[in-house]
Amino acid sequence: MQDTRERSGKSARLEDIAREAGVSISTVSRALNDSPAVKRRTKQEIWKIARAHDYDFRSTMPNGPIGADATIAVIVPAPQARETRVADPFFLDLLAGIAEAARERNADLVISHLSPRSTEDIEYAMSTSRATGMIFIGQSSLHHAFNSFAARDNRFVVWGAEFADAAYCTIGSDNVAGGRRATSHLARLGREKILFLGDTEAPEAEQRHRGYRLALEQAGIALDDQLTVPAHFDVHSAEAATRSAIDSGVEFDAVFAASDLIAIGAIRALTRSGRSVPGDVSVVGYDNIPAASLVTPRLTTIDQDANLAGRMLVSKLIDTKGGRGASQRLETSLLIRDSCGG
Question: What is the pTM assigned to this prediction?
């Protein structure tokens, strides 16, 4: 068949696509807007013709291939005063769980380029997205912004910390219980100067620190502010923070790190300073990323099931059909490996 553009001298019109597809103009219009009123095979044929003729359908095209039952956008807010690290191993584990769950539900998955830092950024993301729903990985400092938008748009769910006043759905591990479990294990090993390493401005890390404080109190160990050392969620920041604590003369015989990457950075600093792990210092991480069982010594850590978390996030978006789903906490478990001794 002769190209529609050659015959008309112009870009293809709805009438041209309808004629070639053998359907009405209204059917073409509905198909290009992914209307459920049009059968999937008919949509696929219409979109194929539209692409062949360079029809400008980007403004109406869904965020994924035609025929999906839903489209889910994943957005990673920027941490406080830092750039987003999409390559974080735990994020990738969580994303794998989301992707598998989305595939099972015949949903397309889109990783957004947006990295919101403010209320205005959240408003832009929510008002311009054509996705069925959005998953935010982490709250950063946007808790109040999420609360504000939940009153008018419930097409989102957040992986993150649980807040008593949250008006939106969150999925996350029980960070307080996890922090308490890790610290209590170190105390049972006879460690009395336990250093907490992490960014307490981050909601999840703050709650893990709360669990750390509760465990110290239960063990009868006095809280020492010198033993709370800020570190971002990456190896290099943690290594530098641990090295600074050592150089400053801070005495500690154990480390509870707010993530496995932080724990690995701490082990690097300890080893380079001539201290043995776990002989001189016991170390516990959080997340159970794949590298945790591969480093030397193998890392004792708090496990949170990233695969289950991904499935729960997808389920909350699809099954609640626009209503607010109930927030849920994942149970945590302590995986004891070589970095603690005892």
Answer: 0.79
What is the distance between the alpha carbons of residues 1 and 169, in angstroms, rounded to a whole number? 53
| Letter string b/e over residues 208-232, b meaning 16 or more CB atoms within 10 A of that residue's CB | bbebbbbbbeeeebeeeeebebebb
Choose the weakest-confidence range: 178-182, 199-203, 270-274.
199-203
Q: Are 185 and 340 in contact (CB under 8 A)?
A: yes
What's the pLDDT tens digit per position in 219-242? Answer: 999 999 999 999 998 899 999 999
C-alpha Rg value of the chain to the nearest Å = 25
Can you tell me whether residue 213 is helix, strand or coil? helix
**Element spanning 156, H or E:** strand 156-159
The answer to whether 50 and 12 are in contact (CB under 8 A) is: yes
pLDDT digits (tens, 9 = 90+) for 290-312: 999 999 999 999 999 888 999 99
Q: How many C-alpha atoms does 270 have within 13 Å on its Cβ side? A: 25
